[in-house]
Amino acid sequence: MVDVVIVGGGLAGSLAAWHLRMVRPGCAVTLLDAGATLGGNHTWSCHATDLLPASQHWMAPLVVHRWPRYDVAFPGRTRTLEHEYWSITSSRLHDVVSAALGDTLRLATTVEALTPTTVRLTSGEVIEARVVIDARGAAPVEVPLGWQTFLGQDVVCETPHGVTHPMLMDATVPQDGAFKFMYVLPWSADQLLIEDTAYADTPGVDAAAARRAIAGYAQTRGWRVREVVREESGSLPIPLGGAIDTFWQGDEPRIGMRAGLFHPTTGYSLPDAVATAEHLAGMDPFTPARVYSEMRTLATRRWQSRGFFRLLNRWLFRAAHPSERARILEQFYGRPADLIARFYGARLTAGDHLRLVAGRPPVPVWRALAHLRE
Ligand SMILES: Cc1cc2nc3c(=O)[nH]c(=O)nc-3n(C[C@H](O)[C@H](O)[C@H](O)COP(=O)(O)OP(=O)(O)OC[C@H]3O[C@@H](n4cnc5c(N)ncnc54)[C@H](O)[C@@H]3O)c2cc1C
Known about the structure:
CATH architecture of the largest domain: 3-Layer(bba) Sandwich
CATH class of the largest domain: Alpha Beta
Number of strands: 16
Order of helices and strands: EHEEHEEEEHEEEEEEEEHEHHHHHHH
Helix content: 25-40%
Bound molecules: flavin-adenine dinucleotide
Shape: globular
Distance between the termini: 45 Å
């Protein structure tokens, strides 16, 4: 019998299977995914300091680009932060993890139903395991949400674009009554990822409008785009309150977005997926009850410790009018660099909470106070 079956070879499932194989070669892991390759079509980025040094070490083979700094730009502030920034692509994830897993990876394999110890495929085949882990990605949940929506294009320019490091947030673009910004990663001298992003009240992307916005931005920056070689888009949930229990319906252990393991204000899940993979690999023995209880405890602790981020989200989405949202981020980027790093790493201290609310509020106090409670 297989020790562990992980259902879903996206970010969380692939990292968990790969790390288990690395740390516990004696543990028989099978990874199943419905797609033809692992990871779908994503660029996953994070700040190097979002990960502990030991985690940075084992994640290094996945990193396709690292830059020593990044910029942000707002109507009243531009800033360069000397924080290392990393990107991982789904194609690199596929190459590295599929080579490590060999024939214990099964692609183009769709799971119809699962229990804590069995998986039934759409082909009718049933796989039994000591533990089945659900990593099938985000599922609908009953918590109030805002959204980070985006469409990104990898483009090739006719001439060198001259960008040397990422622009994480260029909010000098037209706001059109929402909080909008461009996100840019320079892949090489003539290639860029340009992403049109919004903090929006509803999910979904108007792809045609986003493509026009990207083309207009490239033109304003003087980049002559010769070809668009890839596109990705998404709507990431930004919780404004609610309970972690809503993510945990059913008795199967789960990881990734499905477990509520993501940064509340960015919707990014890479650092949590790394921490989850490490936690799983350190667990012995593997029983469904133990894996369920430890994963749920991990998700619950992280959710509870991140209440302040959900408060900031309520201020961003509820207290601020869409046209005021950029001011909150503009003020945030005026804070000390180490606080900004802790914010992205979701490790704010009580002192950081005070520092973040200090100063002239970007939205009226009475509106902010009305959204204090979850
Ligand atoms: C375009 C995009 C870019 C993002 N960029 C970043 C970023 O830069 N940094 C960051 O930290 N986060 C980013 N995120 C957010 C988040 O980290 C990703 O959504 C991440 O991929 C979530 O990981 P996951 O493993 O939970 O789910 P997913 O990566 O979505 O993986 C779920 C997997 O389950 C498989 N699956 C689903 N149902 C079945 C089934 N029935 N049978 C078999 N397989 C199944 C799917 O094929 C998929 O591969 C991004 C999200 C998107 C959409």
